[in-house]
């Protein structure tokens, strides 16, 4: 039996249909009745940064996100500023400390700008926590209610890789803009006439980098705790270049809304890009966030004009006969992709277009991917080698031999 699941509040707000989500992020139907840990979808990606005011502004001015809510000293929140931003169904919460010392300062001192919480919407927080506890997950916050005049949100948190956590949120009885304690805010940024309404529509996947030998443990964790299934895309030595290598496995929630590729370093002649992440992030953490767009060319053009730097793709990528053959027919001439450095990958279900930004902060850690899916449910396995070589050229510039 398959069940068409419900849309998240963010998806409804963004006017996205089930059919559009199938195309955008590869949503599938599944039977949730046997699921011990039924996940509706993403709730929010919570970032801890050194300057939330500036990062929130950047995400609006450059990435076209919309400010929807805020908490900070002016609203009675004494320790931090917290900006809630939205683009389509994607919600980011950007947090920074307003005081010297405290957990956000510690998080930032250790990791630099990064993602502290991959929050997920669930239908029954207590049932999820009960199951998670039974199978040995670490409960960081027990189920509790937050209430204001807009209703009640029930939430709890469990530990994931490194200092990352998953907060589980049931907001079905809440009508407010984000959470109790937040006030509504609207964006003050005015984009020039003709600018696209939004540059991305949803979060497609979040990649976690974990320590050597830990990947299978985390695959097992997501299987055991969240009932995630392993997706076909398993990568071993076949993507190793001469200089660095990684191992990667992908787990996904029943409806495939939430997809977590997990990487661990593999030995190469030089330091792997995953090792570099682990060193600069000081442990395991979220490496990249893939943002689904239905027009990657336009998004890349707008972001480039606003100063976003993407990883360069060598011309040989587009000129190589074998690769061209594999790419086949895509919706635009290959030259249009080459101009922008957009990568193509193809499998039996279709193809995808993707591109990666340079790291967002001062450390060579977290970055964005843009992804436009055309049937393919993959993650660009065929592009790993091309991507690797591009990342290695950058690594070399940082003296990371
Ligand atoms: Fe990715």
From TrEMBL:
This is 4-hydroxyphenylpyruvate dioxygenase. Keywords: Dioxygenase, Iron, Metal-binding, Oxidoreductase, Pyruvate, Repeat. Its EC number is 1.13.11.27. It comes from Allobranchiibius huperziae. GO terms for biological process: L-tyrosine catabolic process. PROSITE patterns: VOC (PS51819). Binds 1 Fe cation per subunit. Its cofactor is Fe cation. It comes from the Bacteria.
